[in-house]
Amino acid sequence: MGLLVLATALSVALISAMAMVLEGRLGAVPTEDRFLAVHGHRCLVGLQDVDISLTPGWSEYWRRLGEEDCTSGSWLAQFRERGQNLAQYKAVDPNRAEEDSYLALAPLEGLEDEGAEALVEPVRQFLGIYFQTPIESGDTLPLPEYALHAEKGARGQYDAQLLLDSLKGSCPDGAAACLAFTDRDLFVPGLQYVFGLGHFHNRVGVISMYRLWDDRFDPVTGRDLAPADPEPLRRALKVAAHEMAHEFSIAHCAHYRYCVMGGTNSLVESDRGSLMLCPLDHEKLRWNLHFDPRARYIELSAWADAYGLHPEAAYWRRMADDYPGFANAAGAAR
Ligand SMILES: [Zn+2]
Ligand SMILES: [Zn+2]
Asked: Which ligand is in closest contact with the Cα of 252?
């Protein structure tokens, strides 16, 4: 969830205000239908064309988002995403990685949850492969008390925007992007909670492990489901990849269904999404980081198999089959 959230949250506030003005005329119509009545659409309008070529594997797997994805309670129904194709991405002057730059993953102070701590090393390894960039473990970063809203959530919540402000300037010059992690619950004004937040240009982001176990205990039997289930790891990887991609100025995906760069409103919506970059976001990252797609896919599939993420491993193996030799708008890999 990036800074776009703040911009869109603002426009949501405006829309709400407009809706209130129009309420008398439209009566007690459900919110989304009211939006449709006012604007003539629910979401996904004004998107620029997808400006890349698809490999056969991509065409096999990926489907475009449509109005039918703007279901009640979904991110797309709540926020009016405008999308970002490759040309638009290049035009925002994205944060670029230098050839010898690296990534950093660092804890915020006060990490207590052992389950969360156990995820840190796999997340670090995964990010290094996903972004095809060396990744270091950073020193513990301060967790400023002024960001804590003790009255929010079950155990207090930290304002992720204030945390990002506090982290600004903490990412070393040689690092392309830095990500902090915490086991505390995060929110941004206007949203009940967030899994993380990544800044588009300041090279800082934060992810929280707090919500990854929300469904840990079976509601009927009370059985602890976590040990046998790779789901908390899969969720942590999704959040980490999503926020770090934001740090490379990649916006929320409005083009492809289940892309890791899609905004999510809940654990259920996050679980429905994948760990994978859609073709468009893949090409943005490839253009930025100059990686060899085939080498990346092969490394990802081997790593995913080792951690029990077999559907992802199968996808990445299939994608590796499409390379080498597929030139596209992003140009040849270096
Ligand atoms: Zn996001
Ligand atoms: Zn995408």
From this structure: 1
- Per-residue pLDDT reduced to its tens digit, 236-286: 999 999 999 999 999 999 999 999 999 998 888 999 999 999 999 999 999
Catalytic residue positions, numbered: 243
Question: How far, in Å, CA of 188 to CA of 33, rounded?
Answer: 26
* CA 33 to ligand 2 centroid distance, Å: 27
CA of 243 to the centre of ligand 1 (A): 6
Residues flanking ion ligand 1, Cβ below 5 Å: 1-2
Q: Any long-range contacts for 44-50 (C-beta under 8 Å, 24+ apart)?
A: 44/69, 44/70, 44/76, 44/81, 44/83, 44/254, 46/82, 46/83, 47/82, 47/83, 47/85, 47/254, 47/255, 48/83, 48/84, 48/85, 48/87, 48/88, 49/85, 50/85, 50/255, 50/279, 50/280
Residue 20 Cα, ligand 2 centroid: separation in angstroms?
33
Cα 304 to ligand 2 centroid, rounded to whole Å = 20
CATH topology of domain 42-320: Collagenase (Catalytic Domain) (3.40.390)
Ligand nearest to the CA of 188: 1
Listed as ranges, residues in the chain with pLDDT below 70 are 1-42, 225-229, 324-334
